[in-house]
Amino acid sequence: MDIKKFLTTEEKIAGLAISDSKISIAFLKSLPRIKGKGIIIENLKEINLPEGTIEQGIVKNKTSLINGFKKLVLDVFPSKKIPKILPVILSLPSQKIYSQLFDFPDRITYDRLEESMKLTIGFSLPLKAEDCYLDWETSSFEEKKVLLALIKKEIVDSYLEVFNKVPILPIACELYSLSLNRIISSFEENPFCLAFIDSQGVEVGISKGKTLRFMEGLYWKDRLSSAEMQKVEEKKKITEELILKTINFYQTDKTDSDFIEKIYLIGEFSEISPLLNSLKEKSGKEVIIPKVPFEIEVSKKIEQIKSKILKLTNLENEKKKELKDFEEKNKKEITEIKNKLAELKEQKEKTIKELADLQIQKGKVLISDTKKEIEKAKVELAELKKQKKLL
Amino acid sequence: MNKKDVKDEIRKLSDLERKKERELKDSENKTKREIEKTKAEFEKLDRYRENVAKKLTILEEQRKKAEDSKKEGEVAKIKLEIERELKKQEDSVSPITASLEKQKLRTESLMEESKKAKNELLELRKQKEAEIKKLSDFEAREKEEIRLEEEKKKQALLLEKQKKEQAIIKKKREAEEKKKLEIERRERERLEAEKRREGEKRKREEELRKKKEKEKQKMAEIERLSNLEKEKEKKIKDLEVLSGKETKKTKIAIQKIEKSKKEKEQEIKSLTKLEKEKENKLKNLENISKKTIEKLKSKLEKLQKSKEKETGKISAFEIPQVDQITNRFLVTFGASLRGLIPRAKDTFISLLPVGTEERYTKSRVLSLLNFVRNWAAVTALILIILFGGVYFLVNKFNSNIEKELTNLQTRPVTEELQKIRDKASGFNESIVLMESLEKEISRWSKLLEELDKNQVSGVIFTGLEAKSFQRGITLKGIAEKREDILAFRENLTKSEFFTDVNIPTKILEKAEEVPFIVTFKIKE
Predict the structure, then answer these.
(1) Is there a contact between A17 and B363 if contact means CB atoms under 8 Å apart?
(2) B256 secondary structure, DSSP code
(3) Is A367 found in the same domain as A347?
(4) pLDDT tens digits, residue range B427-440?
(5) Is residue A387 part of a domain?
(6) Across the interface, do A138 and B286 touch by the CB < 8 Å criterion?
(7) Is A1's pLDDT higher than 50?
(8) In whole numbers, what is the pLDDT of chain B averaged over residues?
């Protein structure tokens, strides 16, 4: 038992990704270094949302989304008590999020960076600050670069209304690209381009020094007709264009630039695999489909259940054998007794017959020829007397 | 409709008639009274009018006189009087007139009703007459029917009489014919009987002859049969002699057969018993096996069910393997990775309203407080259980010891144990004695002091016995004279230290050198 965890009642914070068609939740666990495993996947669940629940990142059917979250929570805690609050880090698609990288002069100190940022956002945003939720993070302190992101309040508020109805508490909200950058940067040191492709759209990001520097995204619906959306080639073409354009833009940008060597493709395999070779050819860069870098923890509960099932199977086999043996033994015993019984009956019948013979024999002995003759003579005599009397 | 119905109808109509008559009478009386009343009213009115007319005539005369005498004031006064009188008359007459009008209408309606009732009565009477006529018709018809019936009866009687007379004549004729036939028959019979008697006589003679022949034959037959009988009897005797010889052999054979028969019967019995046993065993075995198989099968079913349940559970808990997870989940893992960072170090972008993190911190604090509360409650519970357990154990230990003691007390006393017990009780008594002696040691010195004080010269104490002060003390001694011992007793009795002083009187028989024993107790 982790005493520290027990005493501090540490809560697990899950990662929750929401797209137009799916919601997925994951629990990671950081193992102590002595075990040498690092981070492992503790739990992972995903559910599909009914069509029309979320459209282009905006909640359209709150009831449906509430039901979706409730189902997801039940899936996560199938036999356990559902917690009152499940803290999550929320990740939303980047298409509806505006981002910009600010480059401040070298003379500005870290303390003044915050102040400068507050001044800057007053005149360089495409939307009014009071209509948005915005936040920034220092991409690189040495380079004095700050990444700002903002989203319309109405989009986030619609999600928050839904979360008020379910035991999920978002404690932070970020973009897909930021989430992806965090995980790819854990094993990639060099600047790279990441592209996330799904059934709704594509988003492309540039990362350098483990921080996200640039991102761009689009929905298929904005570019393609319904018929065109069914064609892989069309999507492929747009994706390639967007990736190459983004890389080119970043490589030649004045504010922040670097040479991109690798392109990471993330999404459903069916969506990203057609891009692999053509993108390699067109960009001349290494195109990688990254794998999940964590191992899956085999839950103690599962272990327990598995061992229980094994025990039950063994017990079942034992009982089956016992039943079979018993049935055979019993059958044998019953047959033996039946045979014995048949023998007894036969013997009894024989004895009864013998007894009957003896009876007959006795009768024969009792009635000898002489006696027969006497009896006959007596009968005849009686007859004679009768005749005489009659006469 | 029959006669009874008609009679009922007449009765009904008569009742109705009577009722209507009564009603008519009542109505007529009422009308009469009303008319009389109206007449009286009219008379009263006429009288009143007459009076008023008289008054008016007088007033008119007075007015004329006043006009003649040109007394205008008086004329006007009289005119006013006349007018008043006229008005008074009008006022008095008009309600009476109205009432009379009403009365008139009432009377008219009553008369109308009487008329209607009369008509109805007439109608009823007509109906009644019609019914009475019907009844008389019925009665006439009945009379006619009765008359016809009587005539029929008379004719029938006449016919019957004629028939009887004819029958009597017929019978007389038949009797005469019968008589004739009887005489003829008797004659015939007499002739036939004579013929028969002759035939019988011949027959009897023939039979007698035959009988005699038969008798002869019979006698010969009897003789033959007697000879045969004798032969048979002889044969039987010979055979019986032979049979007597054979009987011994038969008896032995029968004995043998009986023996083997008994053996066989015994064998059958034992076989039947064995058969029954086997059948029972088979039955039991079948029952047991059936039950055991059912039990095993139900156990197996339970096992299978729990296995299915567990398999179902596992599917809920299981997550796909890494190679089965598409890298689409990297987004979720990325977000989850952020969750592993301590909150204080999380400086990444968060597009949530201000205060979200604070809400989370608040919930954390609350859960921590809940945890502390639960922790305290659990600790308290553990302590309570611990104390309870100890208390229970101590109690149990005590009760066990008590039980053991009781067991030891109830155990049969062996000789050895009795010895030990005696020793123990002797030891305990000695201890008690020692304790009491320890307590009473100071009282002993006082006793000796008191004895010394009360001693009389000539009395020597030879012994003092006392187990305790409560039980009494025995003092032995010898007195030179009887008086000495009496004086000593006197002293002891008077003393405030001693009580229940007792000297046996027997010792006083001796006058000198008197050995004595005094018993006394010490006052508390």
Answers:
(1) no
(2) H
(3) yes
(4) 888 888 887 777 66
(5) no
(6) no
(7) no
(8) 85
Under an 8 A CB cutoff, do B279 and A351 touch?
Answer: no
Residues of A in contact with B317 (CB under 8 A): 78-79, 299, 301-302, 305
Domains observed in chain B: 3-167 (1.10.287.2610), 417-522 (3.30.1360.100)
Do A201 and A104 sit in the same domain of this protein? yes
The whole-angstrom distance between B391's CA and the closest CA on chain A is: 31
Q: At what angle do helices A300-366 and B72-317 cross, to 10 degrees?
A: 80
- Does residue A237 share a domain with residue A158? yes
Taking each helix axis as running N to C, give the angle between helix B482-494 and helix B415-454, from 0 to 180 degrees, rounded to the nearest 10.
Answer: 100
Buried/exposed code over B169-207 (b: 16+ C-beta within 10 A; e: otherwise)? eeeeeeeeeeeeeeeeeeeeeeeeeeeeeeeeeeeeeee
Express each pLDDT in B243-273 by its tens digit: 777 777 777 888 888 888 888 888 888 888 8
Residues A171 and A220 grouped into a single domain:
yes
Question: Is residue A4's pLDDT more than 60?
Answer: no
| Partner B contacted by A319 (CB < 8 A) | yes
DSSP notation for A218-246: EEHHHHS-HHHHT-HHHHHHHHHHHHHHH
The number of folded domains in chain A is: 2
* A264, A297, A330 - which closes a domain: A297
Interface contacts (A, B; CB < 8 Å): 321
The answer, for A344 touching chain B at a CB cutoff of 8 Å, is yes
| Contact residues, A window 199-218, toward B, CB-based 8 Å cutoff | none
Residues of B in contact with A173 (CB under 8 A): 350-352
CA-to-CA dists, residue B374 to A87, B369, B482, angstroms: 22, 9, 99
Provide the sign of the torsion angle of the four alpha carbons B466, B469, B471, B476, taken in this order: positive
Backbone angles phi, psi at B503, to 5 degrees: -125, 125
Average pLDDT over residues A160-177: 93
> Looking at the structure, do residues A30 and A163 belong to the same domain, yes or no?
yes
- State which of A297, A322, A348 marks the end of a domain: A297
A228 and A370 share one domain: no
* Residue range(s) defining the domain that contains residue A342: 301-377
Asked whether B466 and B473 are in contact (CB, 8 A), the reply is yes
Question: How sure is the predictor about A2, in pLDDT bands with cuts at 50, 70 and 90?
Answer: very low
Residue A214 lies in a domain: yes
Chain A closest-CA separation from residue B215 CA (Å): 9
Query: Which pTM does this prediction carry?
Result: 0.47
Mean pLDDT, to the nearest integer, of B212-220?
A: 86
Nearest residue in chain A measured CA to CA from B369: A9
Residue A383 belongs to some domain of the structure: no
Cβ <8 Å between B339 and A12 = yes
Rounded Cα distance between B231 and B456, Å, is 148
Contact B326 A267 (CB under 8 A): yes
Q: What is the CATH number of the domain that holds A209?
A: 3.30.420.40
Compute the nearest-CA separation of A173 from chain B (Å).
5
Say what the pLDDT of residue B389 is.
Answer: 94
Is A269 in the same domain as A315?
A: no
Cβ atoms of B496 and B523 closer than 8 Å: yes
> A92 or B357, which is more confident?
A92
Query: For testing the chain B interface, which of A130, A320, A344, A360 should be mutated: the one with the most B CBs within 10 Å?
Result: A344
Do A347 and A218 share a structural domain? no
Q: Which pLDDT belongs to residue A305?
A: 80
Give the pLDDT mean for B444-472: 82
Smallest Cβ distance to B285: which of A175, A198, A333?
Answer: A333
Q: Is residue A122 part of a domain?
A: yes
